[in-house]
UniProtKB/TrEMBL annotation, chains A, B:
Listed PANTHER family: HTH-TYPE TRANSCRIPTIONAL REGULATOR LMRA, TRANSCRIPTIONAL REGULATORY PROTEIN
Segments forming domain HTH tetR-type: 17-77
PROSITE patterns: HTH_TETR_2 (PS50977)
UniProt signal peptide: none
Keywords per UniProt: DNA-binding, Transcription, Transcription regulation
Protein name: TetR/AcrR family transcriptional regulator
Organism this protein belongs to: Streptomyces spinosisporus
Known DNA-binding region: 40-59
DNA sequence: CAATAGTTGGACTATATAGTCCATGTCTCC
DNA sequence: GGAGACATGGACTATATAGTCCAACTATTG
């Protein structure tokens, strides 16, 4: 966990932890759909069925809540990606990973974008701490992609000279850029296209 | 111009047009730096040295102002890109284009991201009209990239079968994703890396 | 030079929203 | 089982912000 999750020094009963989790869950969902700025504390209260004092009991204020949401969403995304990428060691596996993300986004016609990416866009310029956490999360996600590429390398699919980390950065950017274009067009096609191009580039190196 | 710029039917004197432009200019700058949601009308008033009634004389409300900002920023970006890309017909030219964008972003250590991209992220899920405009702007920008690739094709640098439009989409996504990663990391390196990867892929097709 | 339409200044209002407070209820641990 | 800490409910406040109103001013046009 990044920030104080088990309230600095305070005891925290199972009941309290549950309430806290309910708040963060509701806030994360709302902020994904409505955006961070337009999600009010009253929205969060209504959605989680919790009173204001409880919210302020568990969080110092909205900023702290936003940070908790970043932590929570980050954990969820990284967990999902770890499951999806942790053992992939083929180009086909990467394509399946791509398909899953694209199809998932297609359910909303691209709306809302990447859970992490849209948080990053909304928060990065306003909260240095949250930005830093998001930056680490992206790096971690990228590390999972690097792992896949390294396994490809180990299996001889990619040459030893292939710049693994840079390829992972490029793939990550293709993903995030694709999300943004899809979100704006309300059509996942550009997202599929951009990831395809990145994967095609990676695949083209295997000939070398 | 997309939305009503010369107020539907109303006369508009040179003086009025100037005031209107001052408002949009100030709003665009503030919204780029502070974000759309956290920029208040009072901020815009203070920055442009204009009174509230003038703002409401020229715009129906904040939404209308945001749309005018989208139009204005869009025009500025497209103009800049038309100048930068309009006559490029070499890979080297594309690299110079990349350098200009990266260096420009480096001046702010990546902060604020792409003028169009960050607007898209903030506005797409809240204002269908603005989203549509932004989508068209991205398409237009991408069209400029397609133009470059087509010239490369005409000059025999790229093969006839090269999927121009998809490559342009991929390049655009690499750019936008790079912006987002740079904004989050406050370091332009990932932006440079991701565009490089897209350009390397395009270049690699010239061998085919 | 009127008459009309566009332009401006700034006080005023309504409301949404973050944040406070305190009384009461419920655990935990000795 | 009792003391003290944790947890909860909800009313209350302060304030920021979008939006209104109107009187006065300035340009344009017949």
């Amino acid at each position: 966990m990044t920030t104080a999750d088990s309230q600095n020094g305070k005891r925290l009963t199972a009941r309290g932890a549950k309430t806290r989790a309910r708040i963060v869950d509701a806030a994360a969902d709302l902020m994904y759909v409505k955006g961070v700025g337009t999600t009010t504390l009253d929205d969060v209260l209504a959605a989680s069925g919790v009173s204001k004092s409880q919210l302020y009991h568990h969080f110092e204020g909205k900023d702290a809540l936003v940070r908790a949401v970043v932590d929570h969403v980050g954990e969820r995304v990284i967990e999902r990606e770890r499951r999806a990428l942790g053992r992939v060691s083929t180009i086909r596996g990467l394509r399946r990973w791509r398909d899953a993300l694209v199809q998932n986004s297609a359910l909303q016609h691209g709306a809302y974008g990447c859970a992490l990416g849209s948080l990053a866009g909304e928060v990065s310029d306003h909260d240095a701490l949250a930005r830093h956490t998001l930056s680490r999360l992206f790096t971690e996600w990228q590390g999972l992609l690097s792992g896949v590429l390294r396994r490809l390398q180990d299996r001889g699919v990619l040459p030893a000279e292939a710049p693994i980390d840079q390829l992972a950065t490029g793939l990550m950017a293709a993903l995030q850029g694709g999300y943004l274009l899809a979100q704006t067009a309300r059509d996942v096609t550009p997202m599929a296209t951009s990831i395809d191009m990145a994967l095609a580039h990676i695949e083209s190196l295997s000939a070398g």
